[in-house]
Write a structure and sequence with these properties.
Blueprint (H helix, E strand, L loop, with lengths): L11 H9 L3 E6 L18 H4 L8 H6 L1 H17 L4 H9 L2 H4 L7 E6 L5 H12 L2 H7 L4 H4 E3 L2 E8 L7 E3 L12 H7 L20 E5 L9 H10 L2 E5 L11 H7 L3 E6 L11 E4 L2 H9 L4
Parallel strand pairs: 1-2, 1-7, 2-3, 7-8, 8-9
Antiparallel strand pairs: 4-5, 4-6
Helix pairs in contact: 4-10, 5-7, 5-13, 11-12
Length: 299
């Protein structure tokens, strides 16, 4: 390949060459990563924020006005997430995060995954991949705990957080329903209606008994570990953006930060999105199909 020529944006061979020489890989994922699993996206046609009013469901103001409505919406999302499975794109990224697999395509690279998703599907995919390895490899494959390279900047759907200022206990609860008072309300949300659920019947803190809230980051709140994520972007020489519109701050800045110091950016998305013109590689199509193919990672 002539090094003086700019490769086409969908040039798999050119991308593979960049991947193989990368030292610091950063993956940024959004709702499109989980779309094939059956998790609704947000801003595309039929997305959640087109069907529901974000201002009445996913802001501190919405919570202050109607905790019952907010909890019914997040209970609905929890029930969806509990019924679906990670897809091939989750598995491909999970394998890229494990040195045993990564050394075949990027032998000298470390890895970070930053996600805007709250559904927990990547964690499940990672656990499944580790469990599929021989027992002799499972203890040595992951060079560090998942939390050290996986950043859930918008929180986790199955976490609940106490609202009492002197408690703030946080824990993961996977039960369905999360509490008896919300049982069946997911069907009403799907229909676009709701019922009144008393505050006393909403999820409570297991430590102090006070009202608990969904353990997610709402619009108007600061995402988790922003400075750590931005510092990683300043070091990354390859940013792989998967299934995100690149609209919401501060995640939308990550690709640009990588480009500022000479890093490459590859975008995997179903449709064109914000900042596509800044990408070095653009792969349009279902990420559950394209990612395994382009990364050359067998499923």
């Amino acid at each position: 390949m002539d090094s003086n020529k700019t490769p086409p944006p969908d040039d798999v061979a050119a991308f593979s060459d960049v991947l193989s020489h990368s030292k610091h890989i950063l993956v940024l994922s959004g709702a499109g990563l989980s779309a094939a699993s059956g998790i609704p996206t947000f801003r595309d046609a039929g997305g959640l924020w087109r069907k529901y009013d974000v201002r009445t469901l996913a802001t501190p103001q919405a919570w202050g006005e109607n905790q019952s409505r907010v909890w019914q919406f997040y209970h609905y999302r929890r029930e969806i997430a509990l019924k679906v499975q990670p897809n091939a794109a989750h598995v491909a990224i999970a394998k890229l995060s494990i040195p045993t697999f990564r050394e075949k395509v990027a032998p000298n690279a470390d890895f970070t995954h930053v996600t805007q998703n709250i559904d927990g599907l990547f964690t499940r995919a990672y656990s499944d991949v580790l469990a599929s390895l021989p027992e002799s490899e499972q203890g040595t494959t992951a060079v560090a705990p998942l939390e050290s390279f996986f950043f859930e900047m918008h929180g986790r759907l199955f976490d609940v957080e106490c609202t009492a200022h002197d408690c703030k206990h946080r824990e993961m609860i996977m039960t369905s329903p999360i509490c008896p008072g919300l049982a069946g309300t997911e069907l009403l949300v799907e229909e676009g209606t709701e019922r009144v659920v008393r505050r006393a019947d909403l999820p409570r803190c297991s430590q102090c008994g006070q009202l608990a809230r969904p353990g997610v980051v709402w619009f108007g709140e600061k995402p988790h570990r922003v400075q750590d994520i931005m510092d990683l972007a300043k070091q990354a020489d390859l940013c792989i953006i998967v299934g995100t519109s690149s609209i919401v701050q501060p995640a939308s800045r990550i690709g640009g930060i990588v480009k500022e110091h000479g890093g490459k950016v590859a975008v995997f998305n179903v449709d064109r999105s914000n900042h596509d013109d800044e990408a070095d590689f653009l792969f349009l199509g279902p990420c559950e199909v394209l990612l395994p193919q382009v990364l050359h990672i067998p499923l």
